[in-house]
Amino acid sequence: MARGGDLAAPPAAPLILASTSPRRRAILEQLRIPFDVVAPAYEEADGDPVAHAVGKARSVAGVAGDRPVLGCDTEVLCGGRVYGKPETEAEAEQMLESLAGKTHEVVSGLALLTPWWEEVHREVTLVTFRPLDARDLAHYVASREWEGRAGGYAIQGLGASLVERIEGDYLNVVGLPAALLVRLLAERFAGVYGFG
């Protein structure tokens, strides 16, 4: 278990993040939500990010006690195709070229659960890429920022140069639907995490 979040006076029970994603940890720290990290014992396969979020959260619920557990999974969709994490430069370039000039969906599943209840949600953000030429693609692929990123880009980095427009929660594209999470914490734990 790794401790995250740096608050002067954290609540007595930080939530459990069922993820090892550095981006999700960074977003929780940005929002000053105290948390501990527990790596999920869950094997992802093709499928719905909502089901993956629930699976991740449930896989660590046994060590959480009464503390809330947060699970999240994100995928990129365009034209009915799921864009995973490219494994090679050629795959990254092909992926980005197929997204160029189009609008795609960044879909996240979010599960927040305790022993007494489960909140399970789906959040969609629309991202439109500007038209990209061969030079744009080569420049971005050479940055290697695409590695380990669904859709082959990181909007919080150089990947922002690929984007023309975004509709919805920006942090959802980074890796965690923060607006949704804040709303749930405000409703379920009014005042405990600083919201509501």
> What oligomerization state is this entry in?
single chain
State the helix count: 6
**H/E series:** EEHEHEEHEEHEHH
Q: Which consecutive residue ranges, at least 5 long each, have pLDDT under 50?
A: 1-12
Tell me the CATH topology: Maf protein
**Tally of discrete structural domains:** 1
Just name the CATH architecture: Alpha-Beta Complex
- Terminus-to-terminus distance: 28 Å
- Structural class computed from helices and strand pairing: alpha+beta
How many runs of DSSP E, i.e. beta strands? Answer: 8
Annotation keywords:
26% strand, 6 helices, 196 residues, 8-stranded mixed β-sheet, elongated, alpha+beta, Maf protein
Summarize the structure.
The protein has six helices and eight strands, in the order ββαβαββαββαβαα.
